[in-house]
Each structure stands twice: as structure tokens, then as C-alpha cells.
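Appendix B. Raw example, untouched.
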Amino acid sequence: MSDRHLSWRGTYNSRDLGRLPITGGGLTRRGAIVRSDALTRLEARGWEEVMALGIRTVIDLRNESEIGPDVAPRPASIETVNLPLDVTEDREFWDVWENGPQFATPLYYRPHLERFPGRSAAVIRAIAQAPPGGVVFHCQGGRDRAGQTAMLVLALCGVEPGAIGADYALSDERLPPMYAAEGRADIAPEIAAYLRDQGTTAPELITRLLTTFDVEAALLGGGLEEADLAALRRRLVD
């Protein structure tokens, strides 16, 4: 799993979604879709590395209030699309989920998909229908919103649920340097302790969600179309 990490200059949690096992045989394609933390931190060398991988589309999952200026100029050949995933204006939902350690866990993924299927459907459509070239999607740290999106992309392409859960867990290895650079404490131990108290782990939550909830049906109900699913699979699956 760890050989999929991308050491782009300026990011901490960039990871290729290629070389993951598909149920029934086969692997996902390298260089097609990447998950990441915020690309606004990329240095000039980092953007060169992004371009060298063939990335041509960036999908920013953050809210407008989170987006700041780029550290280095973004190449003109990169198309950036902002599709906020959170729906922060729905305070009835977020007053429950953003207060406490449950906020930084997959516990809120299913409630989010049930309440806001259209937001995730729009993100999946943008990935699937992007122009030729690689696609990278990112949030701030690359774990929660990017984790939800990666879970959906991989599940829709038939990746084994256990591998999807293991991919999510890799962020815990990558984020401590980001927290240190920002002068913040690593929250992973607190999250892991909270989930232990719940009798589970983040990978187990991912696996359980994917085996008990029909994410494809939820997204089709949110406006995703069969043509989008076919395009996504052509992009990621050999």
C-alpha cells in the first residue's frame, strides 16, 4: 500500500489510487486518480511533479472559507473545480457531527450520504467526466472529505472493501508531519481511542458501511447517472 504515496513538494498526504485489488480480479490504474491534502501548499517543484504524473484536473472539496492563496503559481494547464462537500449551512446536521472526535472519523459518512447524496454525486461526476489526464481531489488534510470521496470512487470501481479501509488508514501515517509544521497536536491517537471505546476502528467502519449500505444506489438517487459510472470505471479500471 505504501508505495502509492506521492512525495509532492508541499503536500503531506498525496496518494495514488492505483494498484488496488478489484473484487473478481485485476487492479486499479496508476496515475488516473489521486487523493490528497490541500494543493495550495504546493511549491513550484511540487506542481512540476503533479504535471509529470499527468494530472490535469484538480477537484477542491473544501468550503470557500478554507481556500487561501497558492504558495506557488498554479500551472495554466491545470483546471481547478471547487465542489464543497460538507454543506456547512445545514446546522441541524453539523451541530451533531462536528462537535467531538466523531467529526474526524468515518462515522458520519453514511449519515452524510443519506442526507446529501447530491454533493457526493456531483463530485463523482466531476471525476468521471473530467477531460483526458489524471484527476486529483483534495480537502484540507486529505483524510475525511477526501477519505469519503476515495471510498466512493473505489467502491464504485469494485475495489475490495478491506483494501478501501486499509487505504483510509494510511493517512494516519502521513499527517503527523503536517500537524507538526502547523504547530498542532496530532489528533490520530484521540480518534483511535474514541473508536476503541466504540468497539471499532476506522477501517472496520469503512468495511461495514460498504457491506451494509448501497452507495451506488444512494448516488444514483442523488443525480449520478449510469454514464458517469461507466466513465469512472473506464478512467480507473484497466
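End of appendix B.
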